[in-house]
Amino acid sequence: MVTARTTRREFIKGTGVLIVGFGLAEPMRAALGQPAPAGKTVATDEVDAFLSIARDGGVSVFTGKVDLGTGIRVALRQMAAEELDVPVDRINLVEGDTALTPDQGPTWGSLSVQVGGVQIRQAAATARKALVDMAAARLGVSSGELEVKFGIVRVRADMTKSASYAELIGDQEFHLKLDKNAPLKKPAEYTVVGKSLPRPDVPAKVTGEHTYMHDFRVPGMLHARVVRPPALGAQLTGVDESSIGSIKGLTRVVRLGNFLAVVAETEWAAIKAAERLKSSWSAWEGLPEMDKLYQVVRATPVAKDEITVNVGDPKSALASAAKTLAATYEFAIHTHGSIGPSCAVADVRDGSATIWSASQAPHWLRRELSAMLGIPVALIRVHYLDGAGCYGRNGHEDAAADAALLSREVGRPVRVQWMRHDEHGWDPKGPPTLVELKGGLDAGGSIVAWQSEFWIPKLSAITDGVPLIAATLAGLPRKEAINPGNIFQNSAPSYPFPNAHALVHRLETTPFRPSWIRTPGRMQNTYANEAFMDELAAAAGADPVEFRLRHLKDPRGVEVLKAAATAAKWETRASPRKAAAKAAIAAGRGVTYVKYENVRTYVAAVAEVVVERRSGAIRVMRVVVAHDCGLVINPDGVRAQIEGNVIQTVSRTLKEELKWDRSRVTSVDWKSYPILTFPEVPEVVSVLINRPDQPPWGAGEPAAAVVPSAISNAVFDAIGVRLRTVPYTPERVRAAILAET
Amino acid sequence: MITLSVNGASHTLDVEPDTPLLYVLRDTLALHGPKFGCGLAQCGACTVIIDGKAIRSCVTPVETVASRTVTTLEGLGSVAKPHPIQTAFIEAQAAQCGYCINGMIMTSKALLDQNPAPSDREIRLALADNLCRCGTHQRILEAVKRAAKRMGRRF
Prior knowledge:
Structural class of chain B: alpha+beta
CATH architecture of the largest domain in chain A: 2-Layer Sandwich
Oligomer: heterodimer
Largest interface: A-B, 61 and 61 residues
CATH class of the largest domain in chain A: Alpha Beta
CATH topology of the largest domain in chain A: Aldehyde Oxidoreductase, domain 4
Shape of chain A: globular
CATH architecture of the largest domain in chain B: Roll
Strand content of chain B: 5-15%
Order of helices and strands of chain B: EEHEEEHHHHH
CATH superfamily of the largest domain in chain A: Aldehyde oxidase/xanthine dehydrogenase, molybdopterin binding domain
Shape of chain B: globular
Number of helices of chain B: 6
C-alpha cells in the first residue's frame, strides 16, 4: 500500500499539474508515470478532491470525468471559473487520473455537466465562501462587505483593501467538506457560463501537437498486437512460432490460455508477426443465424420482467377503443466504430501497474484490472489520454487489459493497438432490440390505450463493468457480467396517456458481449415509441405535430415541439403527403419528441428526407432540432453535440448493421460496416432553449434519441410506407415498399 | 538505409523497406499528425501529401516514397503559427475527438491547391472517403469553405 503522505509541494512538483495549459500539462503529467502521490485526497465529499489553488493564483480543477471529444474540457472550467470568480484561463483541468481525480463515475449517460460539473460547481462555491470568510477575518470586515473579481477578494467600499486567493490559500489545502448549501451565483450575474468559449484542445488537435493515447510513448516500450480466436468461443490448440521466426525485431509470442499476442521492438514487426503467426483453434459455431436474429431474441429466456409505466387499464381501454393498431419494431446490433482502434500502454512491474488509457471510466478500469491482475487497486494508477471518440464502452478497456497482461509477461512497458478487424470484430456491441406496441384511439382521435413490450438483455449490475477480453481468454478472474447499460430508459412513452403499460423483458443472454453505445436503449425505445405515435397520428388522420401536442401537457415539452416545428417551417397536414406516394422521387418530413429518460432534457426534431422509390435509397436532407437542456453552459458546445448526435444517428439509422456468420463477426472493416459519408450528410439546424434558472442537464446523448423515428416518419410522409427495422438500407426500403403495395 | 524528405527535412533511416510510411512517420520521426485508423486505405486518418497528392500512408511502403517529397500535418503549421486551413478549423471549432481531422485537413489542402474555390459538392466529394464518426462533418465543410476564403481566393 502506498500510505506515505507527501507534502503538498512535493505533490505539485511531482505531478506538474499546475503547469497551466493543456498542450504542456497533459503529456508531461502523463509522461512522468510515477507511483500515485498519496497527499491528494480524491474523496468526492472533499473540496480538496476537486480543486486546489497555487501560490501563483493558478487553479487546478480535478475531475474523474474525461473529455471524449465532447467539449467538457472547456464547459467544466467555465462552471468552476464562474463560481470561483477566476478567469477561465487560470484554470488547469486535470482529468481521469485515478491518483489525483475523484471517481465521479464513468463519462457516460450525458451526465458530465449535469452531475460531474454540478459537483465541481458546488466544490467551487464551497471554496469561494471559505475564501471570502478567510478574507473577512484577515481584513477585519464582515463577509457581506466583500466581493470577488479575478480571484481577488476586495472590500466593496474600499478597494485598496484586498486579499488574493493565492495569499489566502496558496498551496494549502481547504480541509472542507463539500457544502451542498454553499451559495451559488445568481444566473443573472453569470459572465462565463452561457458563453461559447472555444475548446482549449482544438488548436493542438488540428496541428498534430496534441498527444493522443495513440501517440503516447514511454522509454523502453515494446509494441504488441493481439491474435484473437477465429471463432468467438474457439480454444487455442497450437501455436507454430517458427512461422514468424524470420521477422526482424520480434521479441516474444505470449500465450495464456486462449489469449495470444506478439510483442516486438517495432510496430510493423508486431503487425507482420500477428498476421503471419500460424495458430490452430477448435471449431466453434455458437452464434445464431443472422437472418433469424429477432426470432432468437424473442425466444431467449427471460431473466426478469420490469414494468416501466402502469397507468389505468390499457387492456380494457384497448378492447373498447374506436380504432386499434399494432406494430413490431426492430433495431440492429451496432458497433461503436471508433475511427482510431483501441490503444493502451501499460507498465506492470514489481507488483504495481501504471496504465495509460483512453477509457471513459479510468476508476472502473482500475478496479477491473485489479481483479484481473491480482494487484491491489491502490497500486494501480490509470492515466486518461484522449483517444478517438468511443461513444460508450468500446475496446479501450480491453486494450488496456491486453497491454497490462503483456507488460506483466515481458517485464517492460507495452503498447497495444488494435487493428481495424480487432476493433470491429471484438469491441462490445449495442444489443438488438425488439419492441411490440399496441395502441387504441377514441372516436375523437385521441390515444386512450398504449401497451408496449420490449425484449432487451438483462443488466447484471451496472458497476460490474463489461468483462475484459484478456481476462476471459486467459481464464483470469473477472465478473461474468452482462452489461448493456440502462437500456430500459425511455421504454415508457413521453406522454401522459390515460391508460398505459410498458413491459420490459430482460433477457438472460444476447448473441454478442454487450455494452452501451451512445444513447443506449433510449434511442431504440424512442424509435419504437415515436414511430408508433406517428402510426396512431396517421390512423387518426391528424397532423403529426398537432397530434403530439394533443397528448402533451408538459409546458417545456410543448415549447420544444413548437420550436422545432416553427424552425422547420412545418406544414400542418396529415401524413402521408397526398399524391406524392406514386412519385419516383418523393420528399417527406417527420417529427419526433422525447423527454430524455422521462425526466430530463427535452428534444424535438423534424427530419426532411428524399426517397427514391425504385432504388429504395433515402437521403436525409435536413434535421432541425429544438433542445432544452436547462441552463446551457456553452452554447457552441451544445450545438456541436446536437450535430454529432444527429449525424452519427443518421448513419446508424440508414446504414449500420453488424454482420456475422455462426463463428464470428464478419463486418470487420468500413466496407462491410459502412458509415455515413460527406456526400450523404444532412444539414443540421439546432434551436437552443436556454433556461438559466434551471439545472444544467445533459446534451451528449438526447438529440440522438429522436433521429431514427423522425426519419421513419418522414419516409412514411414521403411514400406512405412505414419502416420498422433499423437500418433502413435500400434493400429493406424496397422490401417494405413491395410489402405495402 | 532509406532517405526520406519530410516537411522540408531530409532523414536517413534504418527501417524495414516494406514498413508502411505511417509507422515511419509516427514511430521513427515522432510525427503524430497522421493517425492509424484502418490500415486499409478506407478511412483517411493517415493521409499525408506526397508530391501534391493526398496519399494514404498506412498502405504506402516507405521504400516507394524514398525520392519524393512528403508533407504531414506538422508541415503545414503549428499552434504558434497555423496554416490558414488549420486556422479555419480552429475558428469553426471543427473537431470533436479530432482523430480524423488530420485526414480532413490534408485532403482539403490537396483539394484547395488544385481547386481554390470548390463548391459545397466538390468539397463533399473530395472528402467522401474520409470518415468521421463524431459527426463533425458540417463544421468541417464550414472550415474548408472558410479556408478557401482565407487563402485569398473566391469561391
